[in-house]
């Protein structure tokens, strides 16, 4: 894709100016919102490709915004927040965020995370000429359209969930370590972030498994990683 349209949602003027100046220097197009209400309006009216979201907004919590956006869009959401506790990160990721950057942050880290997100978008949008359809039991992935189905119904997956599903599918039958998965999905910046991985695996399982306590498709190897089981 060409340079994505980015929505900056940040009420702190200094941080907002830092992000906007950085994006401008890299020739990214962007819109700005300073409240949650403005962010939702911008998201609906301008349909940006990526949202950069602060959690501590004056009119609503950022997690609420993530939940609202996820009800109708799979647009990647990168949280940029001063909240540094693991529970805050997990809450945001569980709600549907794709990445989490803690303030203060370096411009280099910010741009690296942004590039990873753009590569994921490109990966989803790039057609696979060979083996464009993956089928395993009642699970089907159409790589060309970027859609996945299970038991005849389309799965409404976030970009991270889709990337995880495709990674497991392309390595069906193999045990993938936590380190390998996090590097493939998030890059080295999130190397071996097992807590975040568990959150996304849990939400993915809820969407494809009949009984998450007895998974049919994704098997956990405790302390090691995950494997997609091959069904007849």
Automatic annotation (TrEMBL):
Cross-referenced InterPro entries: CheY-like_superfamily, OmpR/PhoB-type_DNA-bd, Sig_transdc_resp-reg_receiver, WalR-like, WH-like_DNA-bd_sf
Pfam families on file: Response_reg (PF00072), Trans_reg_C (PF00486)
CDD domains named among the record's database cross-references: REC_OmpR_KdpE-like, trans_reg_C
Binding region for DNA: 131-230
Residue positions, PTM 4-aspartylphosphate: 54
SUPFAM superfamilies xref list: CheY-like
Keywords annotated in UniProt: DNA-binding, Phosphoprotein, Transcription, Transcription regulation
Domain of life the protein comes from: Bacteria
OmpR/PhoB-type domain segment(s): 131-230
Domain Response regulatory: residue ranges: 5-118
SMART domains found in the cross-reference section: REC (SM00448), Trans_reg_C (SM00862)
Protein name: Stage 0 sporulation protein A homolog
Species the sequence originates in: Megamonas funiformis YIT 11815
Organismal lineage: Bacteria, Bacillati, Bacillota, Negativicutes, Selenomonadales
């Amino acid at each position: 894709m060409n340079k994505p349209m980015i929505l900056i949602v940040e009420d702190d003027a200094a941080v907002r100016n830092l992000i906007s100046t950085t994006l401008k220097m890299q020739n990214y197009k962007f819109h700005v919102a300073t409240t949650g209400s403005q962010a939702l309006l911008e998201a609906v009216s301008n349909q940006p490709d990526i949202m950069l979201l602060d959690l501590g907004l004056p009119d609503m919590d950022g997690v609420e915004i993530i939940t609202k956006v996820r009800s109708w869009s799979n647009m990647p959401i990168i949280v940029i927040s001063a909240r540094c506790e693991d529970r805050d990160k997990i809450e945001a990721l569980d709600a549907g965020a794709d990445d989490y950057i803690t303030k203060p942050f370096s411009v280099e880290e910010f741009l690296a995370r942004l590039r990873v997100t753009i590569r994921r978008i490109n990966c989803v949008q790039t057609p696979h000429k060979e083996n464009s359809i993956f089928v395993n039991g009642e699970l089907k992935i159409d790589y060309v359209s970027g859609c996945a189905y299970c038991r005849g119904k389309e799965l409404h997956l976030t970009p991270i969930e889709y990337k995880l599903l495709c990674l497991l599918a392309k390595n069906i039958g193999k045990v993938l370590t936590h380190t390998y998965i996090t590097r493939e999905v998030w890059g080295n910046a999130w190397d071996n972030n097992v807590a975040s991985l568990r959150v996304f695996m849990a939400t993915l399982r809820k969407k494809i498994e009949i009984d998450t306590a007895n998974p049919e498709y994704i098997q956990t190897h405790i302390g090691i990683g995950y494997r997609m089981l091959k069904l007849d």
